[in-house]
Amino acid sequence: MTRWMSRAPRWVVALALAIAAGLLFVGAVSHITDLLRHGLHPYDWAPSWLNLYWSSLALFDPLAAALLLGGRRRGTDLACAIMATDIAANWYATYGIQHSSLLAQPGLQRLTAFAGLVLATAPFIRRHLAE
């Protein structure tokens, strides 16, 4: 890790936490809306396991956001786990099931950018947080 990461000002860490938590809450609202409108299987084109995974994010997204806002390291760990698995699931859905591409899927583009932000900033944010 570079030296500037360990010396990041608290306001930079707070801003990164607020952005990540806010975007996790946006994801949670999306997943909760899907659950309320369509139940546990909101996407008929996707296999059951994928639908259940995405539905589970209605619980895990706000949990990660709350942990981040509470200044807990577990929040960054959970956010990284969510983003790594969510990006893998969405890329699989796009390429393996829908036979589409990144350029044709603006939602996947945004998710990929957010995953990059979370995964790239987690190491230096985590060291500023409490156990």
What does the model show?
Helix 2 crosses helix 5 (about 105-125) and helix 4 (about 75-95) runs antiparallel to helix 5 (about 105-125). The chain is globular, with a radius of gyration of 16 Å. It has five helices and no strands. The longest helix is centred in the N-terminal third of the chain and has 29 residues, at about 10-40. By secondary structure, it is mostly helical. The two termini are about 20 Å apart.
- Summarize the helix and strand pattern as letters: HHHHH
Oligomer: single chain
| Unreliable runs | none
Main sheet record: none
The share of residues in extended strands comes to under 5%
Can you count the helices?
5
Structural class: mainly alpha
How would the global form be characterised? globular
Helix content: over 70%
Number of strands: 0
Calculate the mean pLDDT score and round it.
Answer: 90
* Euclidean distance between termini CA atoms: 20 Å
| Rg | 16 Å
Compose a concise summary of this entry.
This protein has 131 residues and is an all-alpha fold. The protein has 5 helices and no strands.
Descriptors for this entry?
131 residues, mainly alpha, 5 helices
Topology, pairings included?
Blueprint: H1 3-6, H2 10-38, H3 48-69, H4 73-97, H5 106-126
Helix pairs in contact: 2-3, 2-5, 3-4, 4-5
